[in-house]
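Now for a chain:

_____
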Amino acid sequence: MNGRPAEGVPGGDPRVGAGTRLECGVCWWVYDPAQGDEVWQIAPGTPFSELPGHWRCPVCDAPQEKFMVLSDEHDD
């Protein structure tokens, strides 16, 4: 496991900054705000905390609550 659960995501976890990358705890796909998500048509530059509530992992369909902050992230 490469990260810690992002409890309360979106929006409530103080470890989740605008550029913080999060990893799916089911399939290990990484959401990178700089890249967005082509599958869900999420524009590059969209922080995880601003994803729509219905957004799910584009690879395995896991809910946002399954995503973990990557342990090497230190973004504000």
Summary: Residues 2 and 38 are 24 Å apart (CA to CA).
